[in-house]
Design a protein that fits this description.
The structure holds two protein chains of two kinds. Chain A is mainly α. Chain A contains twelve helices and no strands. Chain B has one domain: Rossmann fold (3-Layer(aba) Sandwich). In chain B, the strands form two sheets. Chain B has a six-stranded mixed sheet with strand order 7-8-9-4-10-11, with helices on both faces. In chain B, strands 1, 2, 3, 5 and 6 form a five-stranded antiparallel sheet that branches. The chains are: A mainly alpha, B alpha/beta. Chains A and B meet through helix 1 and helix 6 of A and helix 2, helix 3, helix 4 and helix 6 of B.
């Protein structure tokens, strides 16, 4: 039994098939479009169910309220001319962006298990655009954290630099750092391929990344071997940039320019590596 | 002229040859079924043809493009509905389509029109703004087919399109697949292990076993080749694949199929 064997094609349904863009400008435009679509997907999902954003805000809140308040009293950590809470606030922003981004790979594995990823990879969208789109999605989540931490910081009396250019630069640093660590996470997910193994490695990475950095104490306090590790840790450069840009009277150790260049280079390397590994996750 | 042609397509995983020098052709506008027991290599063939998995040896061409050398052109010419549930449960049906319309760079001016047509075509216009996690199994499958035809692919690949569906939902999906071919002239390449599905939908079927094609022809030809009264495609299947108890997929494949079935059920 066959259906509609004799039906003629319905008028208006047979359109010419898709053409791929050929001139460089159109290629670039479609690359950007494809990248933005992946981020749009994330925003739409968050709009349907924003609970995760709220639960995610609890941890940085505890760090600032509990850890921050206690350590402000000890005065054991040399923070230059900054009160400890001010010194720590950009570090906690960096931390919460890191925690969101570093477990991003779990979403990749989830999408692989569902079959969503297969369909993305069968589309003509360039792999690099897909990976960059994912990075941007993590950036969007990172920005929501930034809003919450700014709010908290204001309530706790941290002296914020309200210069619009500084705010914009903080936005950029958060986006860039979330991209960096989420793509790092994607690379790991593509290598380990299962949720269980990924969770183990994710846990293993967050602590050293956070504590071997200048997030909650200056590097000068560390033993020299740890100082070396901190200096190759991208989180250190993120914190340095945030501390300079977020606080009124914040000073940079490495220079914001250096910080940005380090973050950009590592992100670019991760995206290239990610684009190479991404298709392998479905094999 | 065939729209799809495989030339000695081979894929090994370590010692196991999942697909062994597969050579077949599919004519434009036809519905072609790849049958076989679990673990016969059907999904591996599909993954190679959809450019998800590089072959170890051999190649294939789709709509005149080589899957290895022109994979981006191949991807623009095909649609793919994986066996796994690939619609995003956290988005609405409409949003699922919108994302793919954008991902395929559909021209802005007729994007809405195409999405509406696809929803209507698959009988989903009323559920368009509901979250997909509230959809029934049959609706999810139809949405996925809608997603895969937005860009008017020349060849549509369906991997076990009705696994896990109840008989009514299965029948509806069959109707839509068949109508797709008559209305759009889409060539359809599907894998299945439901013999009835092949009998209803396919003009030509290939039966695969252990990575090789063991029988090829129209359902009627295959039935004739086995001989005897009242032969069904089931009999043909058993005849050509032999003792299917010995083959059969392994843990990963079975668990994948069950996961799909559970989510659709």
């Amino acid at each position: 039994m066959k259906y509609h064997e004799q039906d003629a094609p319905r008028a208006g349904l047979v359109n010419p098939p898709l053409r791929r863009p050929s001139n460089p400008l159109a290629v670039a435009a479609s690359f950007i479009d494809n990248t933005l679509v992946i981020a749009e997907l994330e925003i739409r999902k968050l709009r349907h169910d924003p609970t995760e954003l709220i639960t995610r805000a609890v941890q940085p809140m505890l760090w600032l309220l509990v850890f921050g308040q206690v350590f402000t009293r000890t005065r054991a950590i040399p923070t230059g001319n900054l009160p400890y809470l001010d010194f720590m606030a950009p570090g906690i922003l960096a931390q919460s962006v890191l925690f969101i981004a570093i477990f991003y790979g779990i979403a990749i594995i989830w999408e692989r298990d569902l079959g969503i990823l297969h369909k993305f990879l069968v589309s003509p969208a360039p792999r690099t655009a897909l990976v960059l789109g994912k990075a941007l999605s993590a950036g969007v989540r990172g920005l929501t954290q930034a809003v919450i931490i700014y709010l908290l910081a204001v309530i706790l009396g941290v002296k914020i630099d309200w210069n619009p250019l500084s705010l914009l630069s903080v936005l950029l640093v958060v986006l860039l750092s979330a991209s960096l660590f989420s793509t790092f996470s994607l690379v790991i997910a593509c290598l380990v391929k299962t949720r269980e193994r990924f969770m183990g490695i994710g846990q293993l990475l967050t602590m050293p990344l956070f504590f071997a950095s200048n997030a909650i104490y200056p590097i000068s306090m560390m033993p020299s071997w740890l100082q070396v590790i901190s200096r190759v840790n991208p989180l250190t450069y993120e914190v340095d940039a945030l501390r300079t840009l977020m606080l009124a009277g914040g000073t940079s150790t490495y220079g914001v320019g250096v910080d940005l260049i380090v973050l950009l280079i590592v992100t670019a390397a991760m995206v290239i590596l990610g684009a190479f590994l991404y298709p392998k996750v479905v094999i | 002229m065939p729209i799809l042609e495989t030339k000695s397509l081979t894929r090994s995983f370590g010692d196991l040859t999942a697909v062994d020098h597969l050579s077949l052709t599919v004519d434009a506008g036809a519905t072609f079924g790849l049958l076989g027991p679990n673990g016969a290599g059907k999904t591996t063939v599909l993954k190679m043809l959809t450019t998800l998995l590089p072959p170890t040896q051999g190649t294939a061409s789709i709509a005149g493009f080589d899957i290895l050398k022109q994979s981006a052109d191949v991807r623009s010419s095909i649609g793919y509905v994986p066996q796994l549930i690939s619609a995003d449960p956290m988005l609405t049906g409409y949003e699922n389509l919108l994302i793919f319309a954008k991902l395929y760079n559909l021209p802005h001016e007729d994007r809405e029109q195409r999405i509406r047509t696809a929803l209507e075509f698959m009988g989903l216009d009323e559920a368009a703004d509901k979250l997909v996690k509230k959809y029934s199994g049959g609706m999810i499958r139809r949405l996925e087919i809608a997603q895969s035809i937005l860009h008017r692919p020349k060849v549509l690949f369906l991997d076990e399109p009705t696994v896990g569906l109840d008989p009514v939902a299965r029948k509806t999906v069959w109707d839509h697949i068949d109508q797709l071919r008559t209305d759009f002239g889409t060539t359809i390449f599907l894998t299945t292990h439901f013999m009835e599905e092949a009998d209803v939908l396919c003009e030509r079927v290939a039966i695969m076993n252990l990575g090789k094609v063991v029988a090829l022809g129209s359902p009627q030809e295959l039935k004739d080749s086995v001989g005897g009264e009242d032969v069904t495609l089931d009999d043909v299947f058993v005849h050509y694949t032999g003792n299917t108890l010995d083959t059969g997929g392994g843990f990963r494949e079975v668990s994948r199929t069950r996961r799909t079935a559970r989510r659709l059920g």
